[in-house]
Amino acid sequence: MRKTARFGALLMCLLLILLSFTACRDPFATDPTETRYEAASGTKPTKETEPTEPSTKATEPSSESTEETTTEPVVTEPPDGPELVRESYNDLFIVTGTEALNIRQEPSMNADVAGILAKNDGGEILDYRPGWLHIRSGGVEGYIVVDYTTMGEEARRVAPSLAKKRFRVLNGGGTVYTAPSGMAEKLALAREGQVLELLSDTPEEGFYHVLAGGDIEGYVSEEAGETGWLLHEAVSIKRFQQGASESAPSTQAASQGQDIPDATVSLNDPEVAWNGHTVCVDAGHQRYGINEHEPIGPGASETKIKLSTGTEGVATHTEEYVVNLQVALKLQAELLRRGYHVVMTRTTHDCTMSNAERALFASANADIYIRVHQNGIENHDVHGVLTYAPALDNPWVPESVCRDSIRLAHCIAVEFSEATGAPIVAELKDNTLTGLNWATIPCMVLEMGFASNPDEDRLMVTPSYQNKMAVGTANGIDSYFRN
User: Fold this and answer.
1) How many domains does one find in the chain?
2) Between 398 and 230, whose confidence is greater?
3) Which of 50, 140, 331, 460 has its CA 20 to 30 A from that of 169?
4) Are 455 and 386 in contact (CB under 8 A)?
5) Distances 365 to 328, 348, 350, 439, 446 between C-alpha atoms, Å
6) Which domain holds residue 85?
7) Average pLDDT across the chain, whole number
8) Which pLDDT score is estimated for 2?
9) Whether residue 385 is found in the same domain as residue 403
10) Which residues, at least 6 apart from 161, have a Cβ–Cβ distance to it below 8 Å?
11) Helical pair 355-365 and 248-255, crossing angle rounded to 10 deg
12) Last residue of a domain, one of 162, 196, 220
């Protein structure tokens, strides 16, 4: 019994010694649980340390890097320009994904067009809809597809490099005068919200010298708005139904038993400075042809079908009427930017007007008539630009109009070739084209290229080349009116 008691006491002593040793171990010694925690979370617990007094010394630069590293801001003159442009917009957007973007009256691709934005134009976001932005730009309010825009911080970062000091019209609109005086001749009425280019930073006798669209210079009262660092903004489009005017074309058509259709669409910006010229752009052909026949000219016995659907790209198999409309709409936007009024024979792939009716419509509503087409022939090697105009001996078109038409076609051929690099194949004079023979204003057909040439076909469907074609055509129109 005594041995058993001694043995138990011995075991108790050993246990006490062991417990004492465990209690004295380093509390910060590595523990297996630390390794497991670090592997699981990537964070290793740290020792608890005593609090320290805050340092009163200035932070010294790190010895690892003694070079000064600063980020230079984008500076526009004057130096506070970047901040001023950001202050001009509460919720900014900038068009970056396309050369031209329609502003719709409703958030639908079927809605009427209220205005056009070009690349790098901007404005104010009013609201967000699925896939759409509700915006205001240049006094135009409507909806744009969100996919083609830059917004938020990126837009605010980019904006200073695109903005400059401009004049925004307020107070219900402002009159643009020929001289710095309210008694001077009136050039145009600028709508409220419109942004005008400043030609002088300081007012002259209370008027700012401005560029109010196209090449027209004028003066607007400083009380009509305010200056600010602004982006270029939208161009408005007035879309309306307009019947044929009472002019020679309508009288001529009536005598032939023809009806002049209502204008399917008239696109212009009548409230801003107008350069004095109206252009009718016809996107040749359409989805469905009109197989009935019509005289090739007023009183002619020879007839042709009213409208065909055109050719097709030999490589891309893209229908001609599709590309024609794409380029025509780009041309429309370019001309609006230059201060022209623009009327379109069609803005969709469906149109009720025949070739003769389109010519009559153009003659009743415009100064010149541009027909946008492509060519197609058996020889797949031929490529380049080709134009048609009525010949001087045309029995239906006055000789003076024929001369102007030939000059118009030449100006466009030269400038188109210059802008695109396409060779001029020919400048033809022809009396068999219905779409020219019924016109009473200078008119021409622009065959932009040959859809029968594989390389040119592929080129003409690309947006970048379409933009070049539109700019070249607009340059030709400028050249015609300038001379």
Assistant:
1) 3
2) 398
3) 331
4) no
5) 17, 19, 20, 11, 20
6) 81-162
7) 76
8) 47
9) yes
10) 74, 76
11) 150
12) 162
Same domain, 465 and 421: yes
**227 within domain boundaries:** yes
Residue 398 is predicted with a pLDDT of 95
Q: Using CA atoms, how far apart are residues 444 and 394, in angstroms rounded to an integer?
A: 14
Cα 210 to Cα 17, 34, 140, 277: the distances in Å are 99, 73, 20, 20
The residue out of 162, 191, 226 marking a domain boundary is: 162
219 φ/ψ angles, rounded to the nearest 5 degrees: -130, 135
Q: pLDDT tens-digit profile of 69-82? A: 333 323 334 345 55
Residue 84 makes CB contacts below 8 A (sequence gap 6+) with 228, 229
Whole-angstrom CA distances from 334 to 118, 142, 163 are 9, 20, 20
Determine the pLDDT at residue 224. 86
Q: How far is it, in rounded angstroms, from Cα 142 to Cα 188?
A: 24
pLDDT single digits (tens) 438-450: 999 999 999 999 9
Residue type, 356: A
CA dihedral over 329, 334, 335, 339, signed as positive or negative: positive
Mean pLDDT within 87-115: 86
| The pLDDT of residue 436 is above 70 | yes
Give 43's contacts (C-beta < 8 A, 6+ positions apart).
37
